[in-house]
Design a protein that fits this description.
This protein has a four-stranded mixed sheet with strand order 1-2-4-3. It folds into two domains: about 250 residues, no CATH class; about 120 residues, no CATH class. The chain is elongated and about 85 Å long. Helix 4 crosses helix 6, helix 15 runs antiparallel to helix 16 and helix 16 packs across helix 18. It is built from 18 helices and four strands. The protein is mainly alpha-helical.
Length: about 400
């Protein structure tokens, strides 16, 4: 059965995802010097010359007379995506079925690998062209801002000492970019099924596939709630499902993408944006903790100001929903528990009251087991003492 949209999306429906926009805003603000350097005309010109030379050295350039179907599909996809630029197509020597875009502003350079042009139907060829051209459209938008972000992250992670947050940011940016390009594939083919067929054919090498069957397969995995582990592309079943939901204009698509691409907030896998998010969450969590009975003493406040020197007692506390069981993982729960233990150790006279409040707070974010473990591991408490503290916390609650 075909996946039917309320209406076939036009090129105007192809917009950068929220992650693209948030990351560009972050890089412009946090790294203005790097941003301005990578936007320079000299950098862009140098890269364009390198791409053209590499294509001539390493590929076979296709001519319209010998590959009319490929050029016709490319032009149709360009029209449907509102792109106007000269076209150059290349065939690489690599035997793996695939395609890619070598980005040069104002020029279309598409490179094909393996027998992909021979194994696709006309609609699938449109979808393939739409996918690669969507990369061109994204990277050319807003004066190249999204290409700029991609290039900054690619160059950053090329160094061996790149921070884990930079690597995670590059990974997530690539995943979101592929979902954007899949939408371009569907718009070019004016249907989801050809775009899914291309996904499956490039994944398997098969000459004939059933996209409807694969979409059913992807839907069966919905209950597993698996987070993508892909390094440059989301898993094919996630891409197919994400495209189907977008085509049907699912109202909860953003929440679905957050769950499937990011998962719960984890201190162990922070990208640049979630570093900022965790910092804000930490501050608001401490603001809430200081409102608990027995916690708001001067020594505890001094401890909190060792993290945030400008912290004020009347700051807005965190909403409990932000640290609900499905919003953070165990590593982040351990982190919140550690913050509370630091506060408890800051004032020997108020320690019992602060630990009681910590136990009560940990229970509210499904962290009581992590709290018990921390008392045993870090403070070397015995089981009886831990049980008495937790019991006292429950009575106080």
């Amino acid at each position: 059965m075909a996946i039917v949209a309320a209406s076939v999306p036009s090129d105007e429906a192809l917009q950068p995802l929220r992650y693209h926009k948030d990351l560009v805003d972050y890089l412009r603000t946090a790294e203005p010097a790097v941003w301005d350097w990578s936007q320079s005309v000299d950098m862009r010109r140098s890269q364009a010359d390198e791409v053209r030379a590499a294509m001539l050295r390493e590929t076979y350039r296709l001519e319209p007379e010998g590959h009319a179907a490929a050029f016709a599909a490319c032009r149709t996809a360009m029209e449907r995506l509102a792109i106007d630029a000269p076209i150059t197509l290349y065939q690489a020597s690599d035997g793996t079925m695939n395609a890619g875009l070598c980005y040069i502003p104002g020029e279309i350079h598409l490179i094909f690998s393996g027998p992909i042009l021979e194994k696709l139907t006309p609609d699938e060829l449109l979808a393939l062209m739409g996918h690669e051209l969507a990369h061109y459209r994204l990277w050319g938008a807003e004066d190249g801002a999204f290409f700029n972000a991609s290039r900054i992250l690619d160059q950053t992670v090329a160094y061996g000492d790149a921070a884990p947050a930079h690597r995670e940011t590059a990974r997530l940016l690539s995943l979101h970019t592929e979902l954007y390009a899949d939408r371009g594939a569907a718009i070019a083919a004016q249907a989801v099924e050809p775009a899914v067929s291309v996904l499956v054919k490039t994944m398997t090498g098969l000459a004939s596939v059933d996209p409807a069957a694969y979409l059913r397969q992807a839907e069966e995995l919905e209950s597993s709630d698996l987070k993508s582990q892909g390094h440059s592309h989301p898993e094919a079943f996630l891409r197919a499902r994400a495209l189907s939901l977008w085509w049907q204009q699912a109202p909860d698509l953003d929440a679905w993408l957050e769950r499937r691409l990011h998962g719960p907030l984890s201190i162990e896998t922070l990208d640049l944006l979630r570093q900022k998010q965790l910092t804000a969450l930490t501050r608001r969590f401490l603001a809430r903790f200081l409102t608990q009975p027995g916690v708001g003493g001067e020594s505890v406040l001094t401890q909190v100001r060792s993290f945030f020197p400008d912290f004020q007692p009347d700051e807005a506390p965190i909403d409990q929903a932000d640290i609900a069981a499905d919003r953070i993982d165990d590593a982040t729960r351990d982190y919140l528990v550690a913050l509370m233990l630091d506060c408890a150790m800051a004032d020997a006279d108020a320690r019992d009251a602060v630990l009681t409040a910590a136990a009560r707070t940990a229970a509210a974010f499904d962290g009581l087991d992590r709290f018990r473990l921390a008392l045993k591991r870090d403070l070397h408490w015995q089981k009886g003492a831990i049980d008495r503290l937790v019991s006292a916390a429950r009575k106080a609650a």
